[in-house]
Specification:
Elements (H helix, E strand, L loop, with lengths): L3 H4 L32 H7 L20 E4 L7 H6 L3 E4 L2 E5 L5 E5 L7 E5 L2 E2 L1 H6 L1 E3 L9
Parallel strand pairs: 1-4, 3-5, 4-6, 5-7
Antiparallel strand pairs: 2-3
């Protein structure tokens, strides 16, 4: 018995009709082909937001990127804090005003070597558990 391919040798379409023998012929193309033409109604029903832009993206220069440090880096920042007159010690507790250095966020990575009171605009939950975080009003540092 000859194979189907051998049987249709010499016939142009091999018994499939004109378009069905080509790639993705009967299904009207592959993927999203025809969404602006013959599949337009189905696109309106099943994916009405497929085309066009949605939402917006703020420009990079407008988005605030506050500087941030971890709790474990506070000890290494002591010389910089002293130079900026943003560091004091009272009864074994170190006080730092990170706002004077332009640091706006305190994160909870690392372990503090001592007890800290930190003045900063924003602090994560883990940072608040490890140190005492106060609002960003400056501390009184003698000149």
């Amino acid at each position: 018995m000859p194979s189907r391919t051998r049987k249709f040798r010499g016939l142009r379409t091999h018994g499939r009709g004109i378009k069905a023998g080509r790639g993705a012929g009967k299904q009207g193309g592959r993927g999203n082909a025809g969404l602006h033409k013959y599949k337009f109604k189905s696109m309106l029903i099943y994916a009405p937001e497929h085309f066009g832009r949605h939402g917006f993206q703020r420009p990079a220069q407008v988005v605030a990127q506050p500087l941030s440090i971890n709790v474990g880096e506070l000890e290494a920042m002591r010389p910089v804090l002293k130079a900026a007159k943003a560091y004091t010690e009272k009864d074994g507790t170190a006080e730092a005003d990170l706002a004077r250095l332009g640091i706006g966020r305190l994160l909870g990575g690392g372990k503090p070597a001592r007890t800290w009171r930190v003045f900063v605009a924003h602090a994560s939950k883990h940072a608040r558990e490890k140190v005492t975080v106060l609002d960003s009003s400056p501390i009184a540092v003698p000149p």
